[in-house]
Amino acid sequence: MLHTVKGIDLPLAATALTPYMLGSTAGVLVGGWFADSFKRHILLFVTGLTALSALLIPRVNWLSLRDRGGDTAGQPVLRRFSAGVGPR
Description:
The protein is mostly helical and 88 residues long. 76% of the residues lie in helices and 0% in strands. The chain contains five helices and no strands. It has helices at residues 2-6, 10-37, 41-62, 65-68, 75-82. The protein is flat, with a radius of gyration of 18 Å.
């Protein structure tokens, strides 16, 4: 799909797809183990998500484009990812 539609070289498209599939598989396995191991997994999930959000809010503020004068490390990746989202 990436090779045909976006014109990306086939080896690069395969290299991008492999970690995505491995990460997805690992996430399903770890998430299943986590949900099965803990009785109150929702409480732990909410606590972890809240802590992660609390850590990311200052980072987003510190690395804003106005303060830095350009792209931060993750923004080109997010821009490419979000290019395919939404109405066309």
